[in-house]
Design brief:
The complex is a heterodimer of chains A (164) and B (632). Chain A is α+β, with helices and mostly antiparallel strands and 164 residues long. Chain A has 7 helices and 4 strands. Chain A folds into 2 domains: 14-73; 85-163, Glutaredoxin (3-Layer(aba) Sandwich), CATH 3.40.30. In chain A, 45% of the residues lie in helices and 11% in strands. In chain A, a hairpin with a 2-residue loop joins strand 3 (141-143) and strand 4. Chain A is elongated and about 50 Å long. Residues 1-6 of chain A have low confidence and may be disordered. Chain B has 632 residues and is an alpha/beta fold. The chains are: A alpha+beta (164), B alpha/beta (632). Chain A binds chain B through residues 1, 31-36, 38-39, 66, 69-70, 73-77, 91-94, 96-98, 129-138, 140, 147, 149, and chain B through 40-41, 43-45, 78-79, 81, 225-231, 234, 266-268, 304-310, 321-327, 342, 383, 385-387, 391-392, 423, 426, 457, 459, 461, 465, 470, 473-474, 480, 483.
Chain lengths: 164, 632
């Protein structure tokens, strides 16, 4: 997978930090609390830059390198911000045999970015995702919460136009 | 609720309600129940809007106390979604459009006449409307794990109780010893539905006995369904979350654990939400918590969300992940039954396995063992996908043949194409060719023909799928998902992928095929966990049954299915070309131009493709109405 470089500086607010600290205080005592804390932190900030990981390390006493190790292990965690609209194309088997690879390529071409990257205006980011379990509708893509199924390559323009 | 009597009161008050949806002549407070699927498939195709519209229509007409709307889990026939069923008639409305609701309310819910033109076409035969159970998709199914999916409202614990919910837990806690519970599961012959097929009762027995006087034990549920194309666990969690809670509690009693964890994919938001609701309701009614049914047994369950790592479906990796670490597998032994989660004795079963447990307790081991084959008992849920008419979920007795599943239940291959292979077991499994169509599906038969049960994904492929490309697709997945801990998997799968890539680009040699095969055996033998040990299966099985396709790529430099772009060439058959020029207009590379040749009987000169300019996008083929362009 291509990994994009973030050029967006960290813009966390004191409110976000207060929220995160409240989450940490609530979960700190649980066994295996790191994953749930990271998941909440990503909900609060949208991604997990090194600044956020540092706060978590300071408050929990878990070494930063361990946190970084966990963050980079799981596909759900992102070190970079996402676009306003996140497009995920399912490349699970059912979608793949019905042509989702072509749809993914078409999107890369249309948006001028590779998978994992975000357009320069911060509008769209593109990812390939694993099976989302909507195999009955294959091939499938999602834009934020919206699901589009039974697609052909020709539907790409129409979908992008909806969010332009 | 503290006693069986109290449970019985709730059950009896609900029985009439839910029985209306199964036998159609029970006593319900409502005249009609309208069930709308709220599973992921139908939600994606718009069922929430259907429910909104129905609610608005019913409120407007003052029918809310006569007609009940129930948002259920998955009915299985996702291809036809969004799905709506009206009881007591059992009318099955498929691909429901929001504009159809008004007529359905007027003519059916008020007038009593089902709107035939909106019904699933297979249920309408002239003037009569067939029951859903008589359609080819449902006829051969036998629902045990999915028995409540699409029948009850998963967000209402009382509907679950109305379908004998928590009755098995009551029976276990008040009248069975832990040893008797384990013996029942052993006798039933239930084997793990998540992949390997290890006997469930054996797992429980080991966890009960292997460490005497353990201060803590855990019951885990693997709901990290990662095989692409498999979604039965998601459907159970969305449609019947309480069955998992009940079964885990029974397991807790059997092995002597007080705490359970469900490890569920964060990619399944609906399942996570329903599990949270179910856990809350179970705690409120006393089905989880201290002194369940007034006994001295206490048990509680927490959710842990996965974060998108396929390897976490492996049991030791899953436990490492719950502990808050990188989800890397651990060497076994020690097995989880001895040292599992937090180094304590632990059992891990998957969702579908648990979904069978309460029924086994209530109906007995013999009942369960009467279904299936000699060594694989009960039923199995398959997720049908790929090139098949009826995509969706089906549950059939073990031993059903692939032919029955694909041709009868699945409706065969669409568009008149020819079946090539069925893929089972996801990235750990293999491709089954047509010659094994009549083999009864069970754990051992599938392994015998080079595939495996896996979690039950069944992807159908037709003549347009290239088997080398499919093998490469799975290897790309494994390379991406290999955790990197052991060398055979981390480096070996990468090398396999590179060789496959070379072959699909037409640069492979016969020696590459031999090397590839040798690598497969090394990786299988030497990898640390199941991911690496099974990663070569897609390659081995395609080599076994479709070696001729590999040879065609390597020797003839051709892709017989016409998939691998580097090996394709596009040509215009000049005698078929009428010279309309549509293809030249569509070509993005301006590679098509007119020749001087006029085919017999045609008026304009034929077109031709300049192969040095052609980018092989296929736009010309799509534009040609005269089938004059072929790819070879």
């Amino acid at each position: 997978m291509n990994s994009a470089k973030s050029t967006v500086p960290f813009k966390g607010t004191p409110e976000q930090e207060a929220k995160l600290i409240a989450v940490i205080e609530e979960k700190k005592g649980d066994k295996g609390a790191l994953m749930p804390i990271l998941q909440k932190a990503q909900e609060i900030y949208g991604y997990l830059p090194i600044e956020v990981q540092t706060i978590i390390s300071d408050k929990t006493g878990i070494p930063l390198e361990k946190i970084y190790g966990v963050v980079t292990f799981y596909a759900q965690f992102s070190l970079y911000p996402k676009g306003e609209y996140t497009i995920s194309v399912c490349l699970g088997t059912a979608c793949y045999v019905k042509g989702s690879g072509d749809i993914y390529n078409k999107l890369q071409e249309k948006l001028g970015i590779a998978g994992g990257e975000c357009t320069a205006d911060g509008k769209f980011s593109l990812d390939a995702c694993r099976c989302i379990g909507a195999c009955g509708l294959a091939p499938v893509l999602t834009v934020n919460e919206d699901v589009y199924g039974r697609l052909t390559v020709d539907d790409v323009d129409k979908i992008l136009a909806k969010y332009a | 609720m503290k006693t069986l009597e109290e449970l019985k009161v709730v059950r009896e008050s609900m029985e009439g309600e839910v029985a209306l949806r199964t036998n159609g002549n029970a006593s319900s407070k409502y005249e009609r129940h309208v069930l709308v699927c709220g599973g992921t498939g139908c939600t994606s195709s718009g069922s929430p809007k259907i429910i909104e519209k129905l609610e608005a229509e019913l409120a407007e007409k003052g029918l809310t106390d006569k007609i009940q709307i129930v948002k259920t889990g998955c009915f299985g026939l996702c291809e036809r979604g969004p799905i709506m069923i009206v009881y007591p008639e059992g009318s099955f409305y498929s691909r429901v459009n929001i504009d159809e609701i008004h007529r359905i309310v007027d003519e059916h819910l008020i007038g009593g006449n089902p709107v035939k033109e909106f019904l699933y076409d297979e249920t309408v035969e002239g003037d009569t409307i067939k029951s859903l159970d008589d359609t080819s998709f449902y006829k051969k199914q036998h629902r045990v794990a999915l028995r409540n999916c699409g029948v009850i409202d998963p967000e209402n614990i009382n509907e679950y109780i109305g379908r004998d919910g928590y009755k098995a837990l009551g029976k276990v806690l008040t009248s069975m010893t832990p040893e008797e519970v384990i013996q029942t599961i052993l006798d039933s012959g239930l084997r793990g539905r998540g992949g390997g097929g290890f006997p469930t009762g054996m797992k429980w027995k080991l966890a009960r006995n292997i460490v005497p006087n353990a201060d803590m034990k855990y019951v885990c549920c693997n709901a990290d369904e990662g095989d692409p194309g498999a979604f039965m666990d998601r459907s159970v969690l969305e449609g019947d979350p309480h069955v998992v809670l009940e079964a885990m509690t029974i397991a807790g009693y059997a092995i002597g654990a007080k705490q359970g964890y469900i490890y569920v994919r964060a990619e399944y938001p609906i399942a996570v939400e329903r599990l949270n609701i179910a856990i809350k309701q179970a705690r409120e009614t006393g089905m989880l918590g201290q002194n369940i049914f007034g006994t001295d047994f206490s048990f509680d369950i927490d959710l842990r969300l996965g974060a998108g790592a396929f390897v976490c479906g492996e049991e030791t990796a899953l436990m490492t992940s719950i502990e808050g670490n990188r989800g890397e597998p651990r060497p076994r032994p020690p097995f989880p039954a001895e040292k599992g989660l937090f180094q304590k004795p632990t059992i891990l079963n998957n969702v579908e396995t648990y979904a069978n447990i309460p029924q086994i307790i209530l109906n007995g081991a013999d009942w369960f063992a009467s279904m299936g084959t000699e060594k694989s008992k009960g039923t199995k849920v398959f997720a049908l996908g790929g090139k098949i008419k009826n995509t969706g979920l089906v549950e059939v007795p073990m031993g059903t043949t692939l032919r029955e599943v694909i041709e009868e239940i699945g409706g065969g291959i669409p568009n008149g194409k020819k079946f090539k292979a069925a893929q089972t077991g996801g990235p750990s499994g293999g491709c089954i060719p047509a010659e094994h169509f009549d083999i009864p599906i069970d754990y051992d038969n599938l392994i015998g023909i080079g595939s495996m049960m896996g979690s039950g994904g069944l992807i159908v492929m037709d003549e347009d799928n290239c088997m080398v490309d499919i093998a490469k697709f799975f290897l790309e997945f494994t390379v991406d998902e290999s955790c990197g801990k052991c060398t055979p998997c981390r480096i070996g799968t990468k090398r396999m992928y590179e060789i496959l890539d070379k072959i699909t680009k037409g640069q492979g040699t016969l020696e590459d095929i031999d090397k590839l095969e040798e690598l497969c055996y090394h990786i299988k033998a030497n990898s640390l966990c199941g991911l690496g040990q099974t990663a070569p299966n897609p390659v081995l099985s395609t080599l076994r049954y479709f070696r001729d396709e590999y040879i065609a790529h390597v020797v003839d430099k051709k892709c017989p299915a016409g998939v691998c772009k580097d090996l394709l060439s596009f040509e215009i058959v000049k005698d078929n070309c009428i010279g309309c020029g549509m293809c030249a207009k569509q070509c993005p590379a301006s590679a098509i131009s007119r020749t001087d040749y006029v085919a017999p009987g045609k008026k304009l000169a034929a077109m031709e493709i300049d192969k040095t300019k052609c980018v092989k996008c296929g736009a010309c083929i799509a534009s040609c109405k005269f089938k004059a362009i072929i790819k070879k």
